Amino acid sequence: MAQNIVEKILSAHLVSGDMKPGSEIAIRIDQTLTQDATGTMAYLQFESMGLDRVKADLALSYVDHNTIQVGFENADDHAYLRSVARRYGVIFSRPGNGICHQLHLERFGKPGATLLGSDSHTPTGGGIGMVAIGAGGIDVAVAMGGGPFHLTCPKVTRVELTGTLRPGVSAKDVILKVISALTTQGNVGRMLEYGGAGVAGLGIPSRATITNMGAEMGVTTSVFPSDETTRRFLKAQGREADWTELVADAYAGYDDLLEIDLGEVEPMAACPHSPGNVATVSSLAGKKVNQVLIGSCTNSSYRDLKTVALMLRGKKIHPEVEVSIAPGSRQVVGMLAKEGLLGDLVAAGARILENACGFCIGNHMSPGTDAVSLRTSNRNFEGRSGTRSAHVYLVSPETAAAAALTGVFTDARTLDAPQAVEEPPAFDVDDSMFLFRETAGVGVADTPIVRGPNIGEVPKGAPLPDTLDGIAAIKVGDKITTDHIMPAGARLKYRSNIPQYAKYVFEHVDPDFFANASANRDAGLANIIVAGESYGQGSSREHAAMCPMYLGVRALIAKSIERIHWANLINFGIVPFTFVNPDDYNRVREGDSLTIPNLREIIKGDGTATVTLKRTQKRTISMKFAVSVTLSERQKKILLHGGLLAAVAKGGV
Length: 653
Prior knowledge:
Elements: H1 5-12, E1 14-16, E2 24-27, E3 31-35, H2 36-48, E4 58-62, H3 73-88, E5 91-93, H4 100-107, E6 114-117, E7 131-134, H5 137-144, E8 149-152, E9 155-162, H6 171-182, E10 190-195, H7 204-212, E11 221-223, H8 228-236, E12 256-261, E13 268-270, E14 278-280, H9 281-284, E15 291-295, H10 302-312, E16 322-326, H11 330-338, H12 341-348, E17 351-352, E18 372-375, E19 391-394, H13 397-406, E20 434-435, E21 468-475, H14 482-485, H15 498-501, H16 513-522, E22 526-531, H17 543-550, E23 553-558, H18 563-571, E24 575-579, E25 593-596, H19 599-604, E26 608-616, E27 620-628, H20 633-641, H21 644-649
Helix pairs in contact: 2-3, 2-5, 6-7, 10-12, 10-13
């Protein structure tokens, strides 16, 4: 039977379940990656499993998020990550080596393999022909231990690319075009597979830009074929032996089709405050720009930064624009320096930042009050930049460089056409900052684990009660992101200290949430979150479930929930209910008493429950509404035990 690329990879890795869209399957994971913002907790969870080494074919621990060391917390966590990597057989990427997704593409990505990462942009690996999926740290810990990853067997959308991109238009514009067509909602349980004659004109960095931002649509992952372009890239990285051809069979089936003529794509921008708020650059032309930031895991490759350097060569950045550039890896920096391009960027007036996530997660380079900031990163959620009043736009490197020169939104096609950047026949390879390669998969058993005072214990959930008596502790609207739930930036240094990090749950949405939720918990009442559409967008940050669990949240009731966060809620013993009738969302107020009797039996059964709402004002108001949750037998056991760690400890899964 003819198979598409997704079906080929998933069926080759299938451990259990039927390849039927909508059903739960389990797949074998070949490679795992973590980064330091989520990895510390992932390794604490791995340690709790009592294993003596990692069992995945390859496990990588990258340090790229919290490289700014103000206070002892980040440095202590890096020391922990380094020691635990050596102990259990993980390759450790030192701070300064680069951004995990760029590095993994360069040095470890392998066509046809599966990759699970504790970062929502892990699908970047799809640019090289992998099924690469972002997940919560606890799922990655299980995969490191040799356990399968469970997911919904996806529907597959074919994205048919035809034509050729015009000068001044690049992959960022393509993915923004795709996002404008598919939106950022309603894509749970779906994978995208790119194909068509237009694919041949896209290099691996361009393909990776496109798969990277598939995460913003909520799809499980995106994948490109592995073809001659892939082989050339791997050969240039000295890894031709890792190449295998991987293409869809003739007459392979798909659930949907999206057609895009690359020749008709024009420069695009995602406007505040969502990657899905897409407009053409021409419609924004002339709008004043205060800041331009180029880099992130989306657009920090040699191809992207050389393009920018050539556009800026011999010119000066507009005097009223602040421009900073963060390369994706040491390889990129070294090659730019070798070719004199780094000097061109500095001579033009750009600031060169560390090879790290930095500005993308709000760790630095926050714009000024009400400033307009153009960024080549992948998210522009309100406040993510560190300045809540800022207006952040997502654009291509070409559009960013054009704005840097003119001080306003400018279509790069109206300037001198950017030179085409050809892939080099050989990249400069220096793997000296990848440590413990010689003991990968084996480990050094006598390695002492370094634990600073900020590193706490992994919280374990309690079994679900027979009756859930709770309070609607907060009511939020649509498109609540994990940044809304758990702020990033400077707060991320508390990621390994749950009692401390929990103080900032919903910090920018409701500053009183921590105090109110703690009071409800201490009074023996469960906290319940009420939400609108697409709750839990964005990062794979499992702390957005773990910290609420610590504060006594036992259920979420939403109109819809995004994939990674939905899985994280279950992993931490929080029931992810949805309204049977979405209009019932309007009936619930913050502070209402909510009761669900026979909760354990409901979870064991079909997952449909009746909620009794009580509100006491001048008189007591009582009403009922229906909620539901669809669970596999495995997920039911996890929830009944109070979370995945508790279930594993008791042999429940």
